[in-house]
Specification:
By secondary structure, the protein is α+β, with helices and mostly antiparallel strands. Helices cover 35% and strands 17% of the residues. It has 13 helices and 19 strands. A six-stranded mixed β-sheet has the order 6-5-4-1-7-8, sandwiched between helices. β2 and β3 form a beta hairpin. It is globular and about 80 Å long.
């Protein structure tokens, strides 16, 4: 496997830490219940710099004139490999993952103070993991204990996440290829769910269709707990019970994406359980689709991150006026936030190794301080409208909720939508035809 992209990222980080030392641990295994663990998932920062899949591993990057990239990992152990599977071991991992040095994880406690000695700064994700904060403090104290022989401890502790978040915000070619693959697989999963949907099915049956298609096509699994929400359940933004029956007259909202080599896709589709939109469902859906189209058109280099949200908001607010949910002018309703009971979230987020990926959205408190979009950024575009039963809206709207979400790359000319599941009413109804 080619690891050049990981090497480049480590070199880029080394260039930013001066003569400091950066410590990046992976995630620990987590116990689910007695004698059983949750499926293991590495730490995203660690994976971004290594591509190394095992737990009990730590990257140490040593800056300065003689730079080193060191990986500490588990040793080979025939007995444990019989129970738990293959381990690379330090002897293999150095060459296999292009590190300059590799050592057993058991040697980290002894070696870390040596690596920190006489360095200006220690770079670490402060507050990310309390156990690691303590281990870092212990290592620093071990260096300070040698002060009488002239050894200096780093006089600065820097939060590594700010640097890595900025790096991760713009995707390289390898990341873009991986995310396209995740988008293609997730799109196929949503098509499968549309084709399988029938009145009287349980929400979890559609969830199972998604999971099957994701795994069948090689995804690692879901990128997050999927939402399969029929009818008014879709008015609960983070509904994950997925255990109700689907009524033939209702819509179903599915928010689900898969993960491929750590990278997430994130798609939402809303479609009629019975295969045909009713007139009122069609009216609401067309408003949300128009809002998404306006938002996508606003995603371009140089635009502020908030611009595409504002573009969607204009269309959604006009739609709420047309539906006689609110009154007055669009500008007045936006200024007073009269739209918020029915559109309470923003129109998207960064996407990458985390489904809500790292990176600042604004650099200050004013409207001029929103981050500007540049080629290589990946984000979602996901407007919606939600009419909970019992709200002061026309009764025929009660229980209708629509969200449409796609994954988008900023490019030199504007943007590319790289999720392909059907979006228009005609496309959805054609896929759902049961001839």
């Amino acid at each position: 496997m080619n690891h050049d992209h990981y090497v480049r990222r480590r070199q880029q980080l080394l260039a930013q830490i001066g003569d400091g030392v950066a410590v990046i641990p992976t995630a620990p295994e987590r116990v689910r219940n007695r004698d059983a663990h949750y499926p293991y998932r590495f730490d995203s920062y660690f994976w971004y710099l290594s591509g190394f899949p095992e737990p009990d591993a730590v990257i140490v990057l040593v800056g300065g004139t003689q730079q080193k990239s060191i990986l500490f990992c588990r040793e080979k152990n025939e007995e444990r490999e019989t129970w738990d599977g293959f381990r690379y071991g330090p002897e293999t991992v150095r060459q296999a993952f292009d590190f300059s040095e590799a050592y057993p994880i058991a040697s980290l406690e002894r070696m870390l103070p040596e690596l920190l000695a006489n360095r200006s700064a220690l770079w670490h994700s402060l507050g990310h993991d309390a156990d690691w904060d303590q281990r870092i403090a212990d290592a620093l104290n071990a260096v300070r204990a040698q002060s009488r022989n002239g050894t200096r401890a780093p006089n600065e502790i820097r939060d590594l996440r700010g640097v890595l978040d900025q790096m991760r915000l713009t995707k390289d070619a390898h990341e873009i290829d991986t995310m396209r693959q995740a988008a293609d697989i997730a799109s196929a999963g949503h098509v499968r769910a549309m084709r399988a949907c029938r009145p009287g099915m349980a929400e979890y049956e559609l969830e199972a269709e998604l999971a099957y298609e994701f795994r069948r096509r090689g995804a690692d699994g879901h990128a997050y707990t999927p939402i399969v929400a029929g009818g008014a359940n879709a008015c609960i933004l983070h509904y994950v019970d997925n255990n109700k029956l689907l009524a033939g007259h209702s819509l179903v909202l599915i928010d689900a994406g898969c993960e491929v080599s750590g990278y997430a896709s994130d798609i939402t589709r809303t479609f009629p359980v019975g295969g045909r939109f009713s007139p009122v469902q069609r009216e609401v859906y067309e408003i949300v689709l128009a809002a998404q189209q306006a938002a996508i058109a606003a995603v371009r280099p140089g635009a502020a991150f908030t611009d595409y949200h504002l573009a969607a908001l204009q269309v959604l607010t006009q739609g709420l006026i047309d539906l006689k949910v609110i009154s007055g002018s669009v500008d007045g309703a936006i200024e007073s936030e009269a739209y918020k009971p029915w559109y309470m979230h923003r129109t998207g987020h960064w996407l990458g190794l985390d489904v809500h990926d790292v990176g600042d959205y604004r650099t200050g408190a004013t409207d001029d301080d929103w981050v500007r979009l540049t080629p290589g950024m990946a984000l979602t575009v996901e407007p919606g409208l939600y009419f909970r039963p019992g709200e002061p809206v026309p009764r025929h709207l009660h229980g209708i909720a629509v969200r449409i979400e796609d994954d988008v790359f900023v490019n030199a000319d504007g943007c590319t939508v790289y999720t392909s599941a059907p979006r228009t009413i005609a496309e959805i109804e054609e896929v759902m035809r049961h001839d």
